Amino acid sequence: MNVGLPHFLTVSAILFSLGLFGVMSRRNAVGILMGVELMLNAANINFVAFSRYVEHSINGQMMAAFVIVLAAAEAAVALAIVLAMYRNFGTVHADSVQSLKR
Amino acid sequence: MELNLNIPSWSDLRFWLPEAILCITFLVALLGDLVVRGRRTWVPFAVSVAGLITAGAYAVAAMNHGLDAGQFQGHTIMGSLMIVDGMAGFFRLLFIFASLVTVLFAWTSEEIMGKRRENKGEFYALTVLLTAAMMVMAEARDLLMLFLSMEAVGLISYVMAGYMRTSLRSSEASLKYVLFGAVSSAIMLYGMSLLYGMTGAMEFDGIRNALISGTVDPFALLVVVVLILAGMSYKIAAVPFHYWCPDVYEGAPTPVSAIFSVGPKAAGFALMIRFFYTTFAAGTDAGTQLVQDINWPLLVAVMSVATMTYGNLVALRQTNVKRMLAYSSIAHVGYLLMGFVLLSSAGLASILFYLLVYTLMNLGAFFYVVAINNHLKSEELSDYVGIGFRAPWAGAMMVIFLASLTGVPPFAGFVGKFYLFTAVLDKQWFWLAIVAALNSVVSLYYYFKVVRAMFLSTPAEGTDMSPLKLHWLQYVVLAMLAIPTLALGLFFEEFKGLADMAIGMMGG
Predict the structure, then answer these.
(1) Interface touch A50/B151, C-beta < 8 Å
(2) What number is the ipTM of this complex?
């Protein structure tokens, strides 16, 4: 079997949907962040695949490298915030944090 | 495989001086703060103010130079990643001004500095870095830079929202901000990856060339536009991506809410203007056809109406002034989106002008809340009863800001709205203008609820009516915002001309 562009796009679409589902179904803030990582990686697969099959240059791969770095930075900031929240509220469940007015 | 690397030349960087100065200022302020170990809190403050003023001077000089030369079509930086043109110059000045007044006002805020002024100066360093990141947002002309700058602004904002680490409200605000922000930027990135696949280009003009060559399926393009618009609407807090906005503005320290309500929003609009205007090549026949094919005007008009109506209706029943201002800022995004409906240069120029006016009046309103919060430790409307007479000058300036936000002549807000309305009326979008006008009437009610509490309500027996002592710097900054709010309402021609030029001088 020849692996072509559609295969990559299918994998990335599945990954994106799984990530989105995780984001919407998780109560745990860390779980939501894991869903986000899946979504970012789905986009990365797209970038690398298009870079190989459509543009024939390394622009897409460069983008993927930057996204990986940014995802790490975002995870660092987000986990620090989750930690601060755990200290204040004693929980990491996003929906039980409700001190602000509805 | 062809290597298509753009090796940047150092000589490009001289057009990027303001941003470079701000990055250095950030480092100096942060390290200086560590060296003095929080004993002399004025060090990061003074460094930030000096850095912002120097960067501002360079930005003004660059703008003047560009205007004198009669054209400011832009210098690309780092290959084709960024461009400094008339529009970038306009937003540079706007961001530096907004950050400068915020830094000055934060110096007097107890939320930022702590009761005994024991807090360190990270706030100033972060505000300076946020300014640099927002300026890059206005300059990005490549998908890579677009994403990087948006994420940079996002990451700094998440930290700033949680600035009061031990406060429940502040940490909740930053959690909501980071979760919504991460999800929407991931959605946008996925849309960008599909756009890259459809067009095979990263630069905006490359994308435009591919789009107007007519090989792109309109439906697929619509899906991509919706995904990308989702990420950008989150930045500007447009319905249906506004959920974070009221909670973040209420929970974050008030000076931080003030800069959030203008800075990242204006940067988001700058990004949207450059991205959609450049890629859809409005003005060319193929571009106009494309805009019609994906029903862009209807999409944005519906978003605009939903945003302004939601913001205004929910603001009606707020009892907390800060939260009310958050909903009012959502409503203003709705008005601003009106200029986007037709992607015409007249509409975009009126967005720029309104952003200028909005920065002045909205920062002013938020700063008044900061000043009062220092004394009352509250933002509840019921505690504002009689407050106008306890600090009459500041109260009078708050009335100016609120009247301008409503859009009452002769204040600047009226002129700004007038231009937005004309932009849609010119193209026969009557229903949109009528809905917007009705919305302005609704907003009158809740803005004047604050004025009524401040000046007209009778305080209960035994209420403390002693005069409030505001810091002199607070009066200076409020006047820096109130006087232009008045002046722009009367002498607007020149600044409207500047906005027109900024759009006219947008390099592709």
Answers:
(1) no
(2) 0.96
